[in-house]
Protein backbone atom coordinates (compact mmCIF):
# COMPACT_ATOMS: atom_id res chain seq x y z
CA UNK A 1 0.00 0.00 0.00
CA UNK A 2 1.49 3.31 -0.99
CA UNK A 3 1.26 5.85 1.83
CA UNK A 4 3.51 8.40 0.13
CA UNK A 5 2.36 12.07 0.11
CA UNK A 6 -0.56 12.60 -2.27
CA UNK A 7 0.46 13.45 -5.81
CA UNK A 8 -2.06 14.95 -8.24
CA UNK A 9 -3.57 12.40 -10.60
CA UNK A 10 -4.29 14.95 -13.29
CA UNK A 11 -1.62 17.41 -14.42
CA UNK A 12 -4.00 20.28 -14.73
CA UNK A 13 -5.35 23.25 -12.80
CA UNK A 14 -8.70 22.76 -14.50
CA UNK A 15 -11.46 22.83 -11.76
CA UNK A 16 -13.24 19.89 -13.43
CA UNK A 17 -10.07 17.79 -13.15
CA UNK A 18 -9.74 18.70 -9.49
CA UNK A 19 -13.39 17.73 -8.80
CA UNK A 20 -12.94 14.44 -10.71
CA UNK A 21 -9.80 13.67 -8.74
CA UNK A 22 -11.66 14.37 -5.49
CA UNK A 23 -14.47 11.98 -6.51
CA UNK A 24 -12.01 9.22 -7.46
CA UNK A 25 -10.12 9.61 -4.17
CA UNK A 26 -13.37 9.59 -2.15
CA UNK A 27 -14.56 6.45 -3.99
CA UNK A 28 -11.25 4.71 -3.35
CA UNK A 29 -11.34 5.63 0.36
CA UNK A 30 -14.91 4.26 0.55
CA UNK A 31 -13.89 0.95 -1.09
CA UNK A 32 -10.98 0.61 1.35
CA UNK A 33 -13.20 1.36 4.36
CA UNK A 34 -15.77 -1.25 3.25
CA UNK A 35 -12.95 -3.76 2.66
CA UNK A 36 -11.55 -3.10 6.16
CA UNK A 37 -15.00 -3.56 7.76
CA UNK A 38 -15.60 -6.84 5.88
CA UNK A 39 -12.12 -8.09 6.83
CA UNK A 40 -12.70 -7.22 10.50
CA UNK A 41 -16.10 -8.98 10.37
CA UNK A 42 -14.56 -12.09 8.80
CA UNK A 43 -11.86 -12.17 11.51
CA UNK A 44 -14.36 -11.61 14.35
CA UNK A 45 -17.52 -13.39 13.19
CA UNK A 46 -19.29 -13.53 16.58
CA UNK A 47 -19.04 -9.80 17.41
CA UNK A 48 -19.91 -9.05 13.76
CA UNK A 49 -23.10 -11.12 13.90
CA UNK A 50 -24.07 -9.45 17.19
CA UNK A 51 -23.51 -5.94 15.79
CA UNK A 52 -25.47 -6.71 12.60
CA UNK A 53 -28.29 -8.29 14.66
CA UNK A 54 -28.47 -5.26 16.95
CA UNK A 55 -28.42 -2.87 14.00
CA UNK A 56 -31.32 -4.72 12.34
CA UNK A 57 -33.21 -4.81 15.62
CA UNK A 58 -32.63 -1.10 16.19
CA UNK A 59 -33.78 -0.31 12.65
CA UNK A 60 -36.90 -2.49 12.76
CA UNK A 61 -38.01 -2.11 16.40
CA UNK A 62 -36.55 1.23 17.44
CA UNK A 63 -33.79 2.27 19.85
CA UNK A 64 -35.79 1.45 23.02
CA UNK A 65 -35.59 -2.25 22.19
CA UNK A 66 -31.82 -1.92 21.84
CA UNK A 67 -31.58 -0.64 25.41
CA UNK A 68 -33.78 -3.49 26.69
CA UNK A 69 -31.67 -6.01 24.78
CA UNK A 70 -28.49 -4.64 26.34
CA UNK A 71 -30.03 -4.86 29.83
CA UNK A 72 -31.22 -8.42 29.09
CA UNK A 73 -27.75 -9.52 27.95
CA UNK A 74 -26.17 -7.94 31.03
CA UNK A 75 -28.62 -9.70 33.37
CA UNK A 76 -28.09 -13.02 31.58
CA UNK A 77 -24.31 -12.69 32.01
CA UNK A 78 -24.63 -11.78 35.70
CA UNK A 79 -26.96 -14.77 36.29
CA UNK A 80 -24.54 -17.09 34.44
CA UNK A 81 -21.61 -15.76 36.52
CA UNK A 82 -23.49 -16.34 39.80
CA UNK A 83 -25.12 -19.67 38.93
CA UNK A 84 -22.18 -21.42 37.20
CA UNK A 85 -18.96 -19.55 37.99
CA UNK A 86 -16.59 -22.17 36.56
CA UNK A 87 -18.50 -22.47 33.25
CA UNK A 88 -18.57 -18.65 33.05
CA UNK A 89 -14.83 -18.45 33.80
CA UNK A 90 -14.00 -21.06 31.14
CA UNK A 91 -16.35 -19.91 28.40
CA UNK A 92 -17.65 -16.37 28.67
CA UNK A 93 -14.89 -14.61 30.58
CA UNK A 94 -12.01 -15.23 28.10
CA UNK A 95 -14.19 -14.05 25.19
CA UNK A 96 -15.47 -10.94 26.95
CA UNK A 97 -11.94 -10.16 28.14
CA UNK A 98 -10.61 -10.57 24.58
CA UNK A 99 -13.24 -8.19 23.21
CA UNK A 100 -12.43 -5.64 25.94
CA UNK A 101 -8.64 -5.98 25.60
CA UNK A 102 -8.43 -5.73 21.79
CA UNK A 103 -9.04 -1.97 21.40
CA UNK A 104 -6.63 -1.24 24.26
CA UNK A 105 -3.77 -3.13 22.59
CA UNK A 106 -4.58 -1.88 19.09
CA UNK A 107 -4.51 1.74 20.26
CA UNK A 108 -1.12 1.33 21.98
CA UNK A 109 0.60 -1.10 19.65
CA UNK A 110 2.04 1.32 17.06
CA UNK A 111 3.79 3.42 19.71
CA UNK A 112 5.02 0.38 21.67
CA UNK A 113 6.39 -1.32 18.55
CA UNK A 114 8.03 1.69 16.94
CA UNK A 115 9.64 2.98 20.16
CA UNK A 116 11.14 -0.47 20.71
CA UNK A 117 12.56 -0.47 17.20
CA UNK A 118 10.27 -3.11 15.72
CA UNK A 119 10.29 -1.39 12.36
CA UNK A 120 11.19 -2.80 8.95
CA UNK A 121 12.49 -0.12 6.63
CA UNK A 122 13.54 -0.17 2.97
CA UNK A 123 16.81 1.72 3.13
CA UNK A 124 17.39 1.82 -0.60
CA UNK A 125 15.09 0.64 -3.31
CA UNK A 126 15.86 0.99 -7.02
CA UNK A 127 18.40 3.61 -6.10
CA UNK A 128 15.78 5.78 -4.35
CA UNK A 129 15.43 6.32 -0.64
CA UNK A 130 12.49 4.41 0.70
CA UNK A 131 9.50 6.42 1.73
CA UNK A 132 7.92 4.08 4.20
CA UNK A 133 8.55 1.73 7.05
CA UNK A 134 6.39 -1.00 8.48
CA UNK A 135 5.49 -2.29 11.91
CA UNK A 136 4.27 -5.77 12.86
CA UNK A 137 0.48 -5.78 12.65
CA UNK A 138 -1.87 -7.16 15.31
CA UNK A 139 -4.05 -9.80 13.67
CA UNK A 140 -5.91 -11.00 16.73
CA UNK A 141 -6.07 -10.45 20.48
CA UNK A 142 -6.98 -13.38 22.70
CA UNK A 143 -7.20 -13.73 26.46
CA UNK A 144 -6.79 -17.31 27.67
CA UNK A 145 -8.65 -18.94 30.54
CA UNK A 146 -5.52 -18.53 32.68
CA UNK A 147 -5.54 -14.77 31.98
CA UNK A 148 -2.63 -14.66 29.52
CA UNK A 149 -3.12 -11.97 26.85
CA UNK A 150 -1.91 -13.15 23.45
CA UNK A 151 -1.35 -10.88 20.45
CA UNK A 152 -1.05 -12.67 17.14
CA UNK A 153 1.29 -10.55 15.04
CA UNK A 154 1.98 -10.50 11.30
CA UNK A 155 5.61 -9.67 10.68
CA UNK A 156 6.58 -7.45 7.74
CA UNK A 157 9.41 -8.75 5.55
CA UNK A 158 12.65 -7.95 7.33
CA UNK A 159 11.50 -8.80 10.86
CA UNK A 160 11.81 -12.25 12.42
CA UNK A 161 10.55 -13.80 15.70
CA UNK A 162 14.05 -13.20 17.12
CA UNK A 163 13.66 -9.44 16.54
CA UNK A 164 10.41 -9.45 18.52
CA UNK A 165 11.91 -11.70 21.22
CA UNK A 166 14.83 -9.29 21.63
CA UNK A 167 12.38 -6.47 22.44
CA UNK A 168 10.24 -8.40 24.91
CA UNK A 169 11.39 -6.40 27.94
CA UNK A 170 10.56 -3.05 26.31
CA UNK A 171 7.23 -4.32 24.97
CA UNK A 172 6.28 -5.66 28.41
CA UNK A 173 6.82 -2.24 29.96
CA UNK A 174 5.12 -0.38 27.13
CA UNK A 175 2.08 -2.67 27.32
CA UNK A 176 1.99 -2.58 31.14
CA UNK A 177 2.55 -6.26 31.81
CA UNK A 178 4.90 -8.28 34.01
CA UNK A 179 6.53 -10.29 31.25
CA UNK A 180 6.30 -10.70 27.48
CA UNK A 181 7.30 -13.81 25.59
CA UNK A 182 7.36 -14.86 21.96
CA UNK A 183 5.87 -18.10 20.72
CA UNK A 184 6.46 -18.94 17.08
CA UNK A 185 3.44 -19.41 14.87
CA UNK A 186 3.68 -20.09 11.13
CA UNK A 187 6.34 -18.30 9.01
CA UNK A 188 5.71 -14.55 9.07
CA UNK A 189 3.66 -14.68 12.26
CA UNK A 190 4.31 -14.86 15.98
CA UNK A 191 2.29 -14.89 19.16
CA UNK A 192 3.33 -12.30 21.70
CA UNK A 193 2.26 -13.61 25.10
CA UNK A 194 1.72 -10.91 27.71
CA UNK A 195 1.64 -12.05 31.31
CA UNK A 196 0.00 -9.59 33.69
CA UNK A 197 0.37 -11.73 36.83
CA UNK A 198 2.29 -14.90 37.62
CA UNK A 199 -0.32 -17.61 37.17
CA UNK A 200 2.24 -20.15 38.40
CA UNK A 201 2.71 -18.43 41.78
CA UNK A 202 0.34 -20.69 43.74
CA UNK A 203 1.66 -24.15 44.62
CA UNK A 204 0.23 -26.81 42.31
CA UNK A 205 -1.19 -29.94 43.86
CA UNK A 206 -0.40 -33.26 42.15
CA UNK A 207 -3.04 -34.57 39.79
CA UNK A 208 -5.20 -37.36 41.21
CA UNK A 209 -4.24 -40.89 40.06
CA UNK A 210 -5.78 -42.08 36.79
CA UNK A 211 -6.74 -45.59 35.74
CA UNK A 212 -4.29 -45.69 32.85
CA UNK A 213 -1.30 -43.64 31.92
CA UNK A 214 0.16 -42.85 28.54
CA UNK A 215 3.95 -42.92 28.88
CA UNK A 216 4.15 -40.49 25.96
CA UNK A 217 2.31 -37.87 28.03
CA UNK A 218 2.69 -38.12 31.79
CA UNK A 219 1.12 -35.22 33.72
CA UNK A 220 3.72 -33.42 35.88
CA UNK A 221 2.37 -29.94 36.48
CA UNK A 222 0.93 -26.96 34.70
CA UNK A 223 1.84 -24.67 31.84
CA UNK A 224 1.63 -20.93 32.21
CA UNK A 225 -1.41 -20.91 29.93
CA UNK A 226 -3.29 -23.05 32.44
CA UNK A 227 -2.97 -26.31 30.47
CA UNK A 228 -1.57 -29.48 32.01
CA UNK A 229 2.18 -29.94 31.52
CA UNK A 230 2.71 -33.41 30.13
CA UNK A 231 6.16 -34.96 29.92
CA UNK A 232 7.15 -37.64 27.41
CA UNK A 233 8.91 -40.70 28.79
CA UNK A 234 8.92 -42.91 25.72
CA UNK A 235 11.75 -42.48 23.23
CA UNK A 236 13.60 -39.74 25.07
CA UNK A 237 15.98 -38.94 27.91
CA UNK A 238 15.30 -36.07 30.31
CA UNK A 239 17.80 -33.64 31.82
CA UNK A 240 16.56 -31.54 34.75
CA UNK A 241 18.93 -28.70 35.64
CA UNK A 242 18.48 -26.29 38.52
CA UNK A 243 20.36 -24.65 41.36
CA UNK A 244 20.00 -26.05 44.84
CA UNK A 245 16.41 -25.63 46.05
CA UNK A 246 15.09 -25.04 42.52
CA UNK A 247 12.66 -27.92 42.94
CA UNK A 248 14.25 -30.68 40.83
CA UNK A 249 12.83 -33.17 43.30
CA UNK A 250 9.30 -31.97 42.56
CA UNK A 251 9.72 -32.70 38.82
CA UNK A 252 10.87 -36.20 39.68
CA UNK A 253 8.14 -36.95 42.20
CA UNK A 254 5.44 -35.43 40.00
CA UNK A 255 6.60 -37.67 37.17
CA UNK A 256 6.53 -40.75 39.39
CA UNK A 257 3.10 -39.71 40.67
CA UNK A 258 1.79 -39.25 37.12
CA UNK A 259 3.28 -42.56 36.01
CA UNK A 260 2.19 -44.44 39.17
CA UNK A 261 -0.52 -46.55 37.46
CA UNK A 262 2.09 -47.84 34.98
CA UNK A 263 4.49 -48.66 37.84
CA UNK A 264 1.77 -50.53 39.72
CA UNK A 265 0.70 -52.46 36.61
CA UNK A 266 4.29 -53.42 35.81
CA UNK A 267 4.52 -51.73 32.40
CA UNK A 268 7.01 -49.18 33.79
CA UNK A 269 9.96 -50.16 35.95
CA UNK A 270 11.92 -47.48 37.81
CA UNK A 271 15.59 -47.90 38.63
CA UNK A 272 16.80 -45.20 40.97
CA UNK A 273 20.32 -44.04 41.73
CA UNK A 274 20.72 -41.50 44.51
CA UNK A 275 24.38 -40.50 44.82
CA UNK A 276 23.51 -38.06 47.60
CA UNK A 277 23.07 -40.93 50.06
CA UNK A 278 19.39 -41.65 49.46
CA UNK A 279 18.09 -38.42 50.97
CA UNK A 280 15.87 -37.58 48.03
CA UNK A 281 14.72 -40.93 46.67
CA UNK A 282 14.71 -43.41 49.58
CA UNK A 283 11.12 -42.48 50.64
CA UNK A 284 9.95 -43.96 47.33
CA UNK A 285 11.69 -47.32 47.83
CA UNK A 286 8.57 -49.51 47.25
CA UNK A 287 8.17 -47.89 43.80
CA UNK A 288 11.62 -48.86 42.59
CA UNK A 289 12.57 -52.12 40.96
CA UNK A 290 16.15 -51.29 41.75
CA UNK A 291 17.55 -48.71 44.15
CA UNK A 292 21.16 -47.74 44.75
CA UNK A 293 22.50 -45.13 47.14
CA UNK A 294 25.70 -46.83 48.26
CA UNK A 295 29.22 -46.59 46.89
CA UNK A 296 30.17 -45.29 43.46
CA UNK A 297 31.11 -48.86 42.47
CA UNK A 298 27.65 -50.20 43.32
CA UNK A 299 26.05 -47.40 41.30
CA UNK A 300 28.40 -48.22 38.45
CA UNK A 301 27.33 -51.89 38.64
CA UNK A 302 23.67 -50.87 38.44
CA UNK A 303 24.38 -48.86 35.29
CA UNK A 304 26.30 -51.80 33.79
CA UNK A 305 23.39 -54.15 34.55
CA UNK A 306 21.14 -51.84 32.64
CA UNK A 307 23.59 -51.80 29.74
CA UNK A 308 23.49 -55.62 29.70
CA UNK A 309 19.71 -55.55 29.67
CA UNK A 310 19.82 -53.04 26.83
CA UNK A 311 22.07 -55.40 24.85
CA UNK A 312 19.69 -58.33 25.45
CA UNK A 313 16.74 -56.25 24.30
CA UNK A 314 18.63 -54.96 21.27
CA UNK A 315 19.37 -58.57 20.21
CA UNK A 316 15.72 -59.58 20.72
CA UNK A 317 14.51 -56.63 18.68
CA UNK A 318 16.98 -57.44 15.91
CA UNK A 319 15.76 -61.07 15.83
CA UNK A 320 12.15 -59.91 15.61
CA UNK A 321 13.02 -57.35 12.95
CA UNK A 322 11.54 -54.61 15.16
CA UNK A 323 13.12 -51.20 15.60
CA UNK A 324 11.53 -50.04 18.85
CA UNK A 325 10.64 -51.75 22.08
CA UNK A 326 6.98 -52.10 23.07
CA UNK A 327 6.45 -52.06 26.84
CA UNK A 328 4.66 -55.02 28.47
CA UNK A 329 4.70 -56.29 32.07
CA UNK A 330 7.06 -59.05 30.86
CA UNK A 331 9.39 -56.49 29.31
CA UNK A 332 8.56 -53.13 30.89
CA UNK A 333 9.74 -49.70 29.87
CA UNK A 334 12.59 -48.78 32.21
CA UNK A 335 13.09 -45.33 33.70
CA UNK A 336 16.55 -44.84 35.15
CA UNK A 337 16.57 -41.92 37.59
CA UNK A 338 19.89 -40.38 38.59
CA UNK A 339 19.31 -37.73 41.22
CA UNK A 340 22.59 -35.83 40.80
CA UNK A 341 24.60 -36.64 37.71
CA UNK A 342 27.71 -34.71 38.77
CA UNK A 343 27.88 -36.40 42.21
CA UNK A 344 27.80 -39.80 40.50
CA UNK A 345 31.38 -39.37 39.38
CA UNK A 346 32.57 -36.63 41.73
CA UNK A 347 34.20 -38.77 44.41
CA UNK A 348 34.85 -42.02 42.53
CA UNK A 349 38.20 -43.50 41.50
CA UNK A 350 39.28 -42.84 37.97
CA UNK A 351 38.62 -46.39 36.73
CA UNK A 352 35.07 -46.30 38.16
CA UNK A 353 34.49 -42.86 36.64
CA UNK A 354 35.53 -44.23 33.26
CA UNK A 355 33.19 -47.24 33.61
CA UNK A 356 30.30 -44.98 34.71
CA UNK A 357 30.86 -42.64 31.77
CA UNK A 358 31.00 -45.53 29.35
CA UNK A 359 27.80 -47.14 30.70
CA UNK A 360 25.94 -43.83 30.76
CA UNK A 361 27.12 -43.04 27.24
CA UNK A 362 25.82 -46.39 25.97
CA UNK A 363 22.46 -45.95 27.70
CA UNK A 364 22.05 -42.42 26.38
CA UNK A 365 23.01 -43.28 22.82
CA UNK A 366 21.35 -46.71 22.47
CA UNK A 367 18.81 -47.00 25.29
CA UNK A 368 15.82 -45.21 23.76
CA UNK A 369 14.99 -47.79 21.10
CA UNK A 370 15.33 -50.54 23.73
CA UNK A 371 12.70 -48.99 26.03
CA UNK A 372 15.11 -47.30 28.42
CA UNK A 373 14.76 -43.65 29.46
CA UNK A 374 17.37 -41.87 31.54
CA UNK A 375 16.22 -38.99 33.72
CA UNK A 376 19.11 -37.12 35.30
CA UNK A 377 19.10 -34.12 37.60
CA UNK A 378 22.01 -31.68 37.81
CA UNK A 379 22.66 -28.64 39.95
CA UNK A 380 25.38 -27.14 37.80
CA UNK A 381 25.10 -27.58 34.05
CA UNK A 382 28.77 -26.72 33.69
CA UNK A 383 31.51 -28.24 31.57
CA UNK A 384 31.28 -31.73 33.10
CA UNK A 385 27.60 -32.07 32.32
CA UNK A 386 27.30 -30.15 29.11
CA UNK A 387 29.16 -32.94 27.26
CA UNK A 388 26.10 -35.12 27.89
CA UNK A 389 23.59 -32.38 27.07
CA UNK A 390 22.96 -33.21 23.43
CA UNK A 391 22.17 -36.81 24.33
CA UNK A 392 19.12 -35.64 26.33
CA UNK A 393 16.36 -34.72 23.85
CA UNK A 394 14.14 -33.36 26.66
CA UNK A 395 15.70 -30.63 28.79
CA UNK A 396 14.21 -28.71 31.67
CA UNK A 397 15.79 -25.50 32.92
CA UNK A 398 14.73 -24.68 36.47
CA UNK A 399 16.11 -21.71 38.44
CA UNK A 400 19.69 -21.22 37.24
CA UNK A 401 22.44 -18.87 38.35
CA UNK A 402 23.17 -17.03 35.10
CA UNK A 403 22.06 -16.65 31.46
CA UNK A 404 24.99 -18.73 30.17
CA UNK A 405 23.69 -21.76 32.05
CA UNK A 406 20.28 -21.31 30.41
CA UNK A 407 21.84 -21.74 26.95
CA UNK A 408 23.97 -24.61 28.29
CA UNK A 409 20.79 -26.47 29.23
CA UNK A 410 18.26 -25.48 26.58
CA UNK A 411 20.67 -24.82 23.73
CA UNK A 412 22.23 -21.82 22.04
CA UNK A 413 19.90 -18.80 21.82
CA UNK A 414 17.25 -20.18 24.19
CA UNK A 415 17.74 -17.32 26.66
CA UNK A 416 17.32 -14.73 23.89
CA UNK A 417 14.09 -16.41 22.83
CA UNK A 418 12.64 -15.79 26.28
CA UNK A 419 13.70 -18.69 28.53
CA UNK A 420 14.72 -16.48 31.46
CA UNK A 421 15.43 -19.33 33.86
CA UNK A 422 18.04 -17.15 35.58
CA UNK A 423 15.18 -14.80 36.60
CA UNK A 424 13.04 -17.48 38.25
CA UNK A 425 12.34 -16.45 41.83
CA UNK A 426 13.61 -18.48 44.76
CA UNK A 427 10.08 -18.12 46.09
CA UNK A 428 8.64 -20.26 43.30
CA UNK A 429 10.51 -23.59 43.42
CA UNK A 430 9.27 -26.03 40.77
CA UNK A 431 9.04 -23.34 38.05
CA UNK A 432 11.00 -24.16 34.89
CA UNK A 433 11.33 -23.52 31.18
CA UNK A 434 10.87 -26.35 28.72
CA UNK A 435 11.17 -26.51 24.98
CA UNK A 436 8.08 -27.58 23.07
CA UNK A 437 8.88 -30.76 21.16
CA UNK A 438 9.92 -30.20 17.58
CA UNK A 439 9.96 -26.40 17.84
CA UNK A 440 12.16 -23.59 19.14
CA UNK A 441 9.30 -22.43 21.36
CA UNK A 442 9.89 -22.45 25.12
CA UNK A 443 7.17 -22.61 27.72
CA UNK A 444 7.20 -21.67 31.38
CA UNK A 445 5.86 -24.46 33.56
CA UNK A 446 5.62 -25.46 37.21
CA UNK A 447 5.82 -28.98 38.58
CA UNK A 448 3.25 -30.04 41.12
CA UNK A 449 4.45 -30.38 44.68
CA UNK A 450 4.22 -33.64 46.62
CA UNK A 451 4.67 -33.28 50.36
CA UNK A 452 6.47 -36.01 52.36
CA UNK A 453 3.04 -37.39 53.25
CA UNK A 454 2.04 -37.45 49.54
CA UNK A 455 5.24 -39.36 48.70
CA UNK A 456 4.64 -41.88 51.49
CA UNK A 457 1.06 -42.34 50.28
CA UNK A 458 2.25 -42.74 46.68
CA UNK A 459 4.74 -45.42 47.71
CA UNK A 460 2.01 -47.37 49.50
CA UNK A 461 -0.55 -46.85 46.72
CA UNK A 462 1.57 -47.84 43.72
CA UNK A 463 4.38 -50.22 44.68
CA UNK A 464 6.13 -52.19 41.93
CA UNK A 465 4.27 -55.48 41.39
CA UNK A 466 7.08 -58.04 41.64
CA UNK A 467 10.81 -58.16 42.39
CA UNK A 468 13.12 -57.38 39.51
CA UNK A 469 13.10 -60.02 36.82
CA UNK A 470 16.37 -59.35 35.18
CA UNK A 471 18.17 -62.51 34.22
CA UNK A 472 20.78 -60.52 32.41
CA UNK A 473 21.42 -58.26 35.40
CA UNK A 474 21.58 -61.28 37.71
CA UNK A 475 24.15 -62.89 35.41
CA UNK A 476 26.46 -59.87 35.75
CA UNK A 477 26.14 -59.70 39.53
CA UNK A 478 26.35 -63.44 40.17
CA UNK A 479 22.62 -64.02 40.56
CA UNK A 480 21.85 -61.12 42.89
CA UNK A 481 18.44 -59.60 42.32
CA UNK A 482 17.48 -56.28 43.87
N1 LIG B 1 6.92 -27.64 42.78
C1 LIG B 1 7.06 -27.09 43.99
N2 LIG B 1 6.09 -26.30 44.48
C2 LIG B 1 6.24 -25.72 45.71
N3 LIG B 1 7.32 -25.86 46.49
C3 LIG B 1 8.31 -26.64 46.05
C4 LIG B 1 8.24 -27.28 44.78
N4 LIG B 1 9.37 -27.99 44.61
C5 LIG B 1 10.11 -27.80 45.71
N5 LIG B 1 9.48 -26.99 46.58
C6 LIG B 1 10.01 -26.51 47.86
O1 LIG B 1 11.38 -26.17 47.65
C7 LIG B 1 12.22 -26.95 48.50
C8 LIG B 1 13.46 -27.41 47.72
O2 LIG B 1 13.04 -28.33 46.73
P1 LIG B 1 13.96 -29.55 46.24
O3 LIG B 1 14.64 -30.17 47.38
O4 LIG B 1 13.11 -30.40 45.37
O5 LIG B 1 15.01 -28.76 45.38
P2 LIG B 1 16.21 -29.41 44.60
O6 LIG B 1 16.34 -28.66 43.32
O7 LIG B 1 16.05 -30.90 44.49
O8 LIG B 1 17.42 -29.03 45.54
P3 LIG B 1 18.78 -29.86 45.79
O9 LIG B 1 19.50 -29.91 44.48
O10 LIG B 1 19.49 -29.04 46.81
O11 LIG B 1 18.37 -31.22 46.28
C9 LIG B 1 11.36 -28.11 48.98
O12 LIG B 1 11.68 -28.49 50.27
C10 LIG B 1 9.97 -27.56 48.93
O13 LIG B 1 9.66 -26.93 50.15
UniProtKB/TrEMBL annotation:
Biological process terms in GO annotation: cell division
Domain of life: Bacteria
Keywords, alphabetical: ATP-binding, Cell cycle, Cell division, Membrane, Nucleotide-binding, Transmembrane, Transmembrane helix
Binding site for ATP: 242-249
Domain FtsK: 225-407
One function term, GO molecular function aspect: ATP binding
InterPro entries: FtsK/SpoIIIE/SftA, FtsK_dom, P-loop_NTPase
Xref: Pfam families: FtsK_SpoIIIE
UniProt entry tagged with the keyword Secreted: no
The name this protein goes by in its record: Cell division protein FtsK
Organism classification: Bacteria, Bacillati, Actinomycetota, Actinomycetes, Micrococcales
Amino acid sequence: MDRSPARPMFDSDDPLSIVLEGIVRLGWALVRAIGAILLAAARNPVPAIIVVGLAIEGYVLGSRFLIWTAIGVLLALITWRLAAPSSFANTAHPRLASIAAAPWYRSRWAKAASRNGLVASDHQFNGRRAEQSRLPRIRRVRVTRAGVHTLQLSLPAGLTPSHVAAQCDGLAHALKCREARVVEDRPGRVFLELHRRDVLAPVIRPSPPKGQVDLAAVPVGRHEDGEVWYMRLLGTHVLVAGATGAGKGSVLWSLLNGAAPAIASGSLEVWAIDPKGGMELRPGLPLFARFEDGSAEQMCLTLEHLVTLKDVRARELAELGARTHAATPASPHILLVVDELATLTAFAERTIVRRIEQALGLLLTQGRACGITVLAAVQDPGKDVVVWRDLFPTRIAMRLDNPIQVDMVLGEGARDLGATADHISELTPGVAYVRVEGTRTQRRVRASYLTDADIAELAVRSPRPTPVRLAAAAAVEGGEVA
